[in-house]
Amino acid sequence: MGIAGGLTAASGTVLAGGEYEHDQRSSDADSVETSKEMSGAAVRVAHFSPDAPNVDVYVNDEQVLADVAYGDVSPYLELKPGTYTVTITAAGDPKTVAFEGDVTFGAAYYTVAAIGELGAGTFEPAVLVDAGSALARLVHAAPDAPAVDVYADGELLFENVAFTDATDYVPVPAGSYTLSVRPAGDPETTVASFDVTLERGMAYTGYAIGYLEPPQGVMDREFTVELTVDGPTTDDDM
């Protein structure tokens, strides 16, 4: 479970074809066919806790799903990337709370699967990054470069990464992007930009290397981002 502060309001449109019968959100959004077409997070809920009753699901105190039965899997719901308070209650009984906690979603597809048993005290939501996503991280290894922000097609991906910092992996919808490296907090200035293609199910590291201003006599060491393929994603990466 991702734990962070700073909650963002849910946007509330359905992404999946075939609307869930008890979905409480608007149904006028177009279906999304590929992950690259999605600019936000897509989240679905699965009820796999065998001794739990039907449940209602709330995001930031707004009910998004009602009367979800054991074995049910909702369609994807669209959220802006951010951190949300997710609450799972007994269906029709908002005072009986099975789980409440903060969950962070990036711009990717997720399944929040309710697993474990209420009676055994093991009930919890497992947050899984679904197919359609890649994982990416950034290592700042350019000694004369300031802290940087990195944008993917204009959307902030990494923020305030300083020299020697290495970020955690974050999920990114698979697809082709233009990455822009900008001084931290200065979205109008682009230091460098690069085109990359990220394949679903793969993990990548972008290494910011070289000099913004190479020392006198130093050749072929200009600032760039070197992208490496780290291999298939695993549960340990999530």
TrEMBL record:
Q: Where is the DUF4397 domain?
A: 41-134, 135-215
Q: Which domain of life is it from?
A: Archaea
Q: Which Pfam families match?
A: DUF4397
User: How is this protein named in the record?
Assistant: Uncharacterized protein DUF4397
